[in-house]
Amino acid sequence: MNKRRSFLQQLGLLSAGFVIAPSLVSCNSQEQTAEEKSTTDAAATTDTADTAASTNLSQVGIQLYTLRELLPKDVKGVIVRVAQAGYQDVETYGYSKDGGYWGLDPKALKELLQSNKLISSSGHYDFGQYIATGNTDQVKTIIDAGKIVGQTYITVPYLGEEVRGSADAYKAIAEKLNKAGELCKQANLQLAYHNHDFEFKKFGDTTGYDILLKETDPSLVSMEADLYWFVRGGQDPVAYFKQHPGRFVMWHVKDMDKNSPNLNTEIGSGSIDYKQIFSQAGLSGVKRIFVEQENFAASMDPFQSITQSYGYVKNTLL
């Protein structure tokens, strides 16, 4: 986690709030509650917005942050290797108006992806300036880029420590997410929020994540469930799927090293029971899955790693 934050600082992408990178009520009533109707409406909205992204989970994606050490040095070569590994979808990170995506403007990136039979259905974007000031110019810039690339989901990947210190702070964040979500909806896009483990810190009898789930409008703000960080935070992702069905439209799939839980490993080689989680995909409402690995064993070639993870997801979990 510290390495990721340091990396973002080096890129100059760590701002006052969000940076790039990366509710516990069950209703058994047969009548549709207002919350359930909101969830249904959210799913319908996402279906309408889902242009580049098929709901076919067989299109396995990868969060390109996995290859952050290689990507800026050889964007085209890395994208070719990603496609050769079997992936059909990529989730971007690190966009800036001046630098684009690792030196490529949105149009050039889309053309590169198309030439390799890839899509990008989601991107992680820095929302820090917007959260700090409320000025929506940053959100509009992000939306413009995402639309050109052909993305469906505009994803908030991280909350800076300085903005998440209390329950009221999370409520204020939720309000801004709703506003950004409305702008995305107007552009036929869907805002999503990606978790780590810090959201599960308790504030009295609730958590930051529960506040975000409660205070954001499901039709405006979807969730990208990072399953590793759920487990790392002591949470059961399936329990959340049951409490908020249909809310978790994207997953980050990365495994936990059996001996060092703070490290990742190839999918299927770690301690997370992904067979059980994938059995509840319908309950989650998941439409896109992205393999991610934030660190590799010293002896492991990154491309061998992502190929191995792809094979396990494709052949064992789907």
Automatic annotation (TrEMBL):
Q: Does the keyword Secreted apply?
A: no
The organism named in the record is: Pontibacter ruber
**What is the protein name stated in its UniProt record?**
Sugar phosphate isomerase/epimerase family protein
Isomerase as a keyword of this entry, yes or no, is yes
Q: Name one GO molecular function term.
A: isomerase activity
- Xylose isomerase-like TIM barrel domain: from which residue to which, for each copy? 81-289
Instruction: Report the domain of life of the source organism.
Output: Bacteria
Q: Which Gene3D superfamilies match?
A: Divalent-metal-dependent TIM barrel enzymes
Q: Where does the record locate the signal sequence feature? A: 1-21
The UniProt keyword set, sorted, is: Isomerase, Signal
Task: List the InterPro entries hit by this protein, alphabetically.
Answer: IolE/XylAMocC-like (IPR050312), TAT_signal (IPR006311), Xyl_isomerase-like_sf (IPR036237), Xyl_isomerase-like_TIM-brl (IPR013022)
